[in-house]
Design brief:
CATH superfamily: Zn peptidases
Helix content: 25-40%
Number of strands: 8
Radius of gyration: 16 Å
Number of helices: 6
């Protein structure tokens, strides 16, 4: 059971639902909004597990928390990095460095924001104006960040034990981090979870992040 409200939803090319879930203070008074996104890439599924695990518990929050547990359900079902159109959603954002690339697993689409998944995230960011965004990826066990997020990255590093890395180590044209963190100046964390981690261990390592965004941030 999930203790959160369905705030919005859309269907993918293959007819699968993408949900935006919300948890906020009972008073509906809050200072900050935090957006957490799982499964940008269909073969990186542990972010959805962590989000759903957190939302399976009733807990209070002083902030408005928004969650997309699985942004790429078509890719998740197929076991592919890309969505049903063969597009890497983390290369499909209308950042200034977007460019048309070859059609491999990092293909950023025929044009920026060509994908319904990308359009949904852009709509959410424009409507809810988050103060912090965390996306959950795999498999590097690091805290990567874009924009004014160094303090948040250090805090998450302290919670998880994952090292902070300003650069992921390779170019990411049209990336979500560039679009939101650098160009929109929103603190944006790309949390790289470890690969093939036992679920209970993964939860115990990362559960403090949810306490942080609900109570301390």
């Amino acid at each position: 059971m999930i203790f959160a409200d369905v705030e919005s939803k859309i269907n993918t090319k293959n007819g699968n639902e993408i949900l935006l879930l919300k948890r906020e203070p009972a008073s509906q008074n809050y200072e900050k909004t935090i957006l957490v996104i799982g499964v940008f890439h269909g073969d990186e599924q542990d972010g959805e597990y962590l989000i759903n695990r957190y939302l399976s518990y009733k807990s209070e929050t002083q902030n408005r928390l928004l969650f997309i547990p699985c942004l790429n359900p078509d890719g998740k079902i197929a076991g592919t990095r890309t969505n049903a159109n063969g597009v890497d959603l983390n290369r499909n954002f209308p950042a200034q460095n977007w460019k048309l690339t070859r059609k491999d697993e990092y293909f950023g689409g025929e044009k920026p924001a060509s994908e319904v998944e990308t359009q949904f995230v852009i709509y959410i960011i424009e409507k809810y104006v988050p103060d912090l965004i965390i996306t959950l990826h795999e498999p590097y066990s690091i805290v990567n960040y874009d924009g004014p997020a160094s303090e948040e990255a250090e805090k998450i590093s302290q919670i998880t034990g994952y090292k902070v890395e300003k650069s992921i180590g390779y170019p990411t044209f049209g990336s979500f981090g560039t679009y939101c963190g650098i160009e929109k100046n929103i603190p944006t964390i790309t949390l790289e979870l470890p690969e093939h981690c036992e679920k209970e261990s993964l939860w115990n390592t990362n559960k403090g992040i949810f306490t942080y965004i609900a109570e301390s941030y």
